[in-house]
User: Fold these one by one.
Assistant:
Number 1:
Amino acid sequence: MRIARRLFLSISALAALGLMAGPGHADQASDAAQTKKAAEMVDTSAFKKDGPYKIGVSAGYLANSWVVFALQHVRWEASKHADVTNVIVTDASFNPTKQISDIEDLLRQDIDLLIYWPVDDSAIASVLKRAVDAGVPTVQAGGGFSDTPGTVSNAYISQWTLGEMVARKLMADLGGKGKIIAMLPIAGTTAAVDQLDALQTVLKEFPDVELVSTEYGDWNRAKAKQITENLLQRFPKIDGVFSPAGQMSIGIAEAFDEAGRLGEVTMSPGDEYNGWLKWVAKHGQGGAVTFPTRAGQEAVKIGMAILKGEPVKRGVAVPSVYISPAEISKYADMEAPDDWWSSELPAEFLPKQ
């Protein structure tokens, strides 16, 4: 199966598309503070130890295809290190209490490094701190950015930057006017909070665009579709949709299509979820702003540096890039299932279909 090539987009191209940030956004203060915090160097000498190493992976959920691909990136990178002898994976199935128990169980198995995706950051903060206090470094993979005492470092995707890129492309495609809805991930998560803040910041520049409803689809195609079906009953006119997650975007598009209203709506870019890429290839609309699954691989790289006692940044950003509808066919795999992700995983590490 063809694996999509690495995604590149020059700064000049982003500027030409209107996806670069405009001047003087006061609401970017928190994002700027996060970027500054991520650049801080962490002394990891206390975690230095000789191999062999055992990596524990606490997944808040493995029902999400993005996490499945990110996990395969973890395994791929781990395979490149002869001193990594085992990768132990747990699945909390969206249950914060179970994730606490999972991490405690991993610690009892004498892991040397913990990589995690949280269900709820605050719920697992104390058990992560216990791991660090016990000499087990922790690295968050993907999601947002955490600077709590229980997180040594992050391989993170800036949800604010992603949200801004998606919002600016949507504004450009709408011509700066119309009524829109927003479909965000799990309420209260960094992803949801930062994406909404980015959208609201961009909307300040477009007074003729009205956000009529903000919803939370939990990165779930079926739930996003059901929510949209209800919104279509409430609102006789919806001109645009802000939805950075491809899983939810395809569900939204299906709801509009089945209601006979697909022709009235402008979809924002989603991400590189294959079902969405195939939809964009067919309809020539929206494009994608990537949410790279290789965040899992970056987390292992950070973790191995920590175990060698090397200083690391508090956070390493995995950048999002824009793919236009005209370019989408290079990344969409029309023969692969919808729950597939454009990535550079070698064939032996691709998830089983």
Number 2:
Amino acid sequence: MFRDFESIVKNMGDLPPSPVVATRLLELLRDPELRINDLANAVSLDPVISAKLLKIANSVMYHQVKQVSSVDRALIVVGENVLKNLALEYSLRSTQKTYGLLERKLWENSIGCAVASRMIADKLTDLDKSEAYLAGLQRHIGKVVMINRDKDLYREVVQIVERGEGTLRDVERGLFAYSHELVGAALLDYWNYPKRIVDATLYHHDLEKLQQLDKQTFTLCAVISLASCFCRYFGMGFEQAKKVDLPLCHGSLALEANPMVLEDLKELFYPEFVKERNLFLT
């Protein structure tokens, strides 16, 4: 596959800067000797993340007797996993220059894919759940770049595809020169993301190409592919909910997923998605 990321970066115009604070938080959370003060100091550098964290800590979900008014106390209340998800999702949202229905649909689809990827990785693979969540969340980051560059033109892409006049990637290539997975992989490479996440973004529509090259990345792509089927099943994103035979999805077949496990995951997925959406899309 074409992967001249440097040319893509040059041709796509101004790319969003790497979300520095969110990236720093993720680095800290990987440290086994992490201190709560270091984490609180990093969170405090970004007023948006700080405000969101305090809002979550004071939500009905946590039933606090006294109002949480400090970042370190909020971290204790919500825990590292919620902070990690907040940092990941903020890293995506911060790249968007405009907000509207198009962005909202893309955002909800990204959250849905991230949540499904985490659940699928946990039940069907030995992959790191956080890595799967991040890969699912960022798989359509290229669409964000395209919308930032020309929102009206990308809206035209969506309309052409909805009318059945072309496949998504073909229409994207016709109007933007590149399809979203190429643009997304180029951006993540530009941000110095791990190679596995970059490759998962690049090949998430073509996972078979990785089967003989990299088993772990192939498995990660299969997880993302199956998570995308979950999103289609529940109508998250640009399309209406549709009947999807989950056991026959490419990702399911690649993972050799047990249909009974898939049925359990399907029942658990939507409530988990709603919970996450309510936390971060207020």
